[in-house]
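Before the break, one more example. Copy the sequence into your notebook; we will annotate it together after we see the structure.
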Amino acid sequence: MVDPSEVESQAMTACLKFFGEAAGEIGFDKPLGAYSQREALQVIEAIVTGYTEAMCAHHERTKFPPVRGLPQSPDPMANPFADMANDLP
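Here is what the structure looks like once it is written out:
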């Protein structure tokens, strides 16, 4: 990734937790160059999972833009148009 967006940078930062957990299982005293293929894939899977989860969470939080004039929903993932059928004549 040459020039990550702010969202992508935040997702990469979220990966640190997943990387730490995977490295903790393998052992922090073991250098990366000494990882077996299975251990390296375990770390890669943890990082990719963390990145994907962070990007999906961002998408869920932002998939419905705020609508001016409507009160802010306590549930940021709520669809502001969910009750539109009730408003139709």
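Residues 15 and 48 are 8 Å apart (CA to CA). Residues 6-87 form one domain. Try to locate both features in your own notes.
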